[in-house]
UniProtKB/TrEMBL annotation:
Feature: compositional bias, Basic and acidic residues: 199-210
Gene3D superfamilies to which the protein is assigned, alphabetical: Phosphoglycerate mutase-like (3.40.50.1240)
Signal sequence segment: none
InterPro entries, sorted: His_Pase_superF_clade-1 (IPR013078), His_PPase_superfam (IPR029033), PGM_Phosphatase (IPR050275)
Descriptive protein name: Histidine phosphatase family protein
Region spans: Disordered: 188-210
Classification via CDD domains: HP_PGM_like
Organism ancestry: Bacteria, Pseudomonadati, Pseudomonadota, Alphaproteobacteria, Rhodobacterales
Source organism: Paralimibaculum aggregatum
Pfam families assigned: His_Phos_1
Amino acid sequence: MPADSTEIALIRHFPTDWNREQRLQGRADRPLTADARARLAELRLPRPWDRAAIVASTLCRARETAESLAEGRPVQLDARLVEQDWGDWEGLIGEALLADPASGFVATHLMGPDFRPPNGETARDVLARVRPALAGIGGSGRRTLLVVHKAVMRHLMREAHGLPAEAEAPEIKRARLYPMRCDAQGRLSDPAAPMRLVPRREAARDGAAP
């Protein structure tokens, strides 16, 4: 990776009611549940990410997650980071679609870069709009946390790990940061081990800022 690359980390937004119901959200702008907000309030970013710049998707589930983790610091919103558009499938349950051979839905690792949901986006479409946002961050030289969405993370993490688009993406867990490096062209590499969010009481005990 070029010497001018920047440390970034990806984190998935906390859950909404549609996450709980296992519905495809895409561009649907669902807020966090009350339970998710309460859980977020108990957590903070681990060092050194507690002083990183924070950029989030404009969808409210990502924005709410970012604002809680920012603890009063500025959050930059970027519409290029929104979730993959699932088109006519948004609001439907993935398992039900998978069980219906006529739906055209397949397991995510079988979709490939050009699989298009009806009236939705392909993985290639997502990367084409996300790449310029990453390039701006990679060229900034400032450690940056991106609060984004599961499908977006799958596509980016495949790239960082050097996996083909048809491969199963690395597992994405809640309340985890996924660090990697990003260069000024928005290319990703050098994924590091995931980092857990820190309980606030533990951070306070270690002397971190409240």
